[in-house]
Specification:
mainly alpha; 115 residues; single chain
Length: 115
Amino acid sequence: MGFTKEPHLVYQRAALCLMTSRFEGAPLTVQEAMSYGCPMASYDLRYGPADAITDHVDGLLVPYGNRKAMAATVVAALRDPELLTRLSAAAAVRAADFGEVPFAARWSALFNGLV
């Protein structure tokens, strides 16, 4: 589809957002997609996705690099409208945990605990 100035519309229409990266630190794509109720299907990388995604609760995690498992997971999810509806609702709720206020509160608690 190419570049869009309205990614929120893409997320809102999508059933899933796939992240098949080899490396991710703190992937904003996960939080962005989930904030629009678009659950993620991601490789369970060493750092990143599992910090925001709870498998089969608000997204899907697949063993790193297992392309067959990723394909099977995506196909199974797309064939299960109830699962997608549940993941979508939970993704939007989970994304709120990464908003500005909760984020600042976590940093504040960390720094206050260090003092």
